Amino acid sequence: MNLFKYASPQTFYPLAGKLILWFAIGAAILILVGLYIGLLVAPTDFQQGDSYRIIYIHVPAAWFSMFLYVVMAGYAIMGLTFNAKLAYMMAKSIAPTGAMFTFVALITGAFWGKPTWGAWWVWDARLTSELILLFLYIGYMSLQAAIDDTRRSDRASAILAIVGVINVPIIYFSVKWWNTLHQGSSINTSGSSMAAIMLQAMLIVAIGFWLYSTAVILTRVRREIEERARNTAWVNETKE
Amino acid sequence: MNNRQKISALSMMFRILKRDITVAWRRRSDVMSVFFFFIIAASLFPLGLGVDLKLLHSIAPSVLWVAALLSCMLSLPRMFETDHVDGTLEQLIISNQPILLVAMMKMLAHWVLSGLPLVLIAPLIGLQFNLNMEELQMLALSLLLGTPTLSLIGGIGAALTLGLRGGGVLIALLVLPLYIPVLVFGSGAVNAVTMGMSASGGVALLGAVLALALIFAPLTASYALKISVE
Predict the structure, then answer these.
(1) Rounded to a whole number, what is the largest CA-CA distance in chain A?
(2) Is there a domain that residue A1 lies in?
(3) Helix-strand-coil split of chain A, %, nearest 5
(4) A123, A156, B29, B122: least surrounded by Cβ within 10 Å?
(5) Cα–Cα distance measured from residue A85 to residue B29, given in angstroms and rounded to the nearest whole number
(6) B172 touches chain A (CB under 8 A)
(7) Domain membership of residue A78 as a residue range
(8) CB B189 within 8 Å of CB B206
(9) Is residue B118 over pLDDT 50?
(10) Buried b (16+ CB within 10 A) or exposed e, B131-167
(11) Do B176 and A135 touch (CB under 8 A)?
């Protein structure tokens, strides 16, 4: 079997169309099951009460905000090295979902922080890095949107994504250093070890988020393919 | 015109630098406006905060560093823009000269024109914020090590947004998040002196970031230039 068969938009398009439904169904089931266990079955935290339950959304969202950025940069590298159009389209389609998860992580973090820390926002190293990650996503999407020529916008934003991914660890450590210099970290985010059922619920939601991201990204890639290849014969034939 | 003589890379680098500085010097107001922006931006803080010298003293490192960051960023669109508009950049790229060296010299010229003046004037502004001699020295040293990194990283942003409408605002979006480590290490080093701690960690990290940027930024910017001009 030719591994690169689905690297061409023409063969990828129908395959993605078939897969989206399964990913979407899987995502819906897993997220509902995970949230059911997390919100109704898992025990109440003896320190934080029920307010801790937002972690079932917060933590997976934070994981995916970072994971998707790395995946996006991976596709950017693939695009630049193999000059693969589909890889650029994937990178472009990942960005909005990644930015959304970053935003969700920040908002849910604020909702959790208010009752727990007594403040909507603290300049903790992790929070600050997450905020900067959102800026990086916004920069990527702005650059992509500002260039009309798709070939240039693909390649220019790919470079930006790669520069960003190299900078993420440097930014994280700089913020950490800045944080320890300015104030002793009064808040310990790691907390005590977690009950097994809580971890399981969180992992189920995380896998659900993964399937959700895949479904949404594939949908977006399909729209991108339709737009870019709108003048080719095969797209006009497969019109739905 | 067959008498084109092959010039060495070193002489070409020197010529580009000399040309950029000459051109900028003939339009002095462009260079001076960035310089005065820095002074005005830094002077706004005492006006907004009041004349509490103790407070001003404690925020001075951050204020001066943020002002330096913004003034460096303001002049970024000019790094390649005029050469792009009149076709010089295209000629440099299709001439047989390594574009990497061209990008490097453009960044160096940018630093000489908008980074170095800040290093020289910052201690004077620092006096307005009641900084003492030791702090002023650290401020100058941290800016001396940090502003070249700003020009280097900024060069990538300038190359990526070359010729785009609204390029100036876009550069800010792309470049400011990447400037954060320099801001943290730079103002952190001065803050450390203010608090009576050793600033060597911050200075070493500024140097490390500069070394990294020196290796990767010209390479990335030259690649970005090729994409933008093509």
Answers:
(1) 64
(2) no
(3) 80, 0, 15
(4) B29
(5) 45
(6) no
(7) 11-186+193-235
(8) yes
(9) yes
(10) beeebbebbbbbbbbbbbbbbbbbbbbbbbbbebeeb
(11) yes
**Contact indicator for B35, B24 with CB cutoff of 8 Å:** no
Residue A49 corresponds to which tokens in the numbers above?
């009460």
Beta carbons within 8 Å of B81's beta carbon, 6+ residues apart = B158, B162, B163, B167
- Percent of chain A past pLDDT 70, that is, above it, reads 90
Collapsing DSSP states into helix, strand and coil, what is residue B7?
A: coil
Q: State the pLDDT at residue B5.
A: 58
The B residues from 188 to 207 touching A (CB cutoff 8 Å) are: 188, 191-192, 201, 205
Q: Which residues pair with A45 in a beta bridge?
A: A49
Q: Give the whole-angstrom CA distance, residue A123 versus residue B158.
A: 30
Q: Chain B contacts of A159, Cβ < 8 Å?
A: 156, 160, 220, 223-224, 227
Q: Is the pLDDT of residue A39 over 60?
A: yes
Q: A55-94 burial, b if ≥16 CB within 10 A, otherwise e?
A: bbbbbbbbbbbbbbbebbbbbbbbbbeeebbbbbbbbbbb
Angstrom distances, CA of residue A22 to CA of A29, A101, A214, B140: 11, 21, 10, 60
Instruction: Measure CB to CB from residue A181 to each of B167, B191, B220 and give the nearest one.
Output: B191
pLDDT at residue B63 in the model: 92
For residue range A109-166, list pLDDT tens digits in order: 888 888 877 788 877 777 888 899 999 999 999 999 999 899 999 999 999 999 999 8
Nearest CA in chain A to B217: A163
Q: For residue B28, what pLDDT is reported?
A: 86
User: Is A81 part of a structural domain of the chain?
Assistant: yes
- Give how many domains chain A has, as a whole number: 1
CB contact under 8 A, A155 and B161: no
User: CA-to-CA distance for B225 and B98, rounded, in angstroms?
Assistant: 12
Collapsed DSSP state (helix, strand, coil) of residue B35:
helix
Is residue A5 a part of any domain in this protein?
A: no
| Tokens read off for A219 | 């949908």
Domain assignment present for residue A42? The answer is yes
Q: Please determine, for residue A240, whether its predicted confidence score (pLDDT) is greater than 70.
A: no
Q: Which residues of A touch B205 (CB under 8 A)?
A: 174, 177
How far apart (Å, rounded) are the C-alpha atoms in residues B206 and A155? Answer: 30
> SS3 string of A69-136?
HHHHHHHHHHHHHHCCHHHHHHHHHHHHHHHHHHHHHHHHHHHHHHHHHCCCCCCCHHHHHHHHHHHH
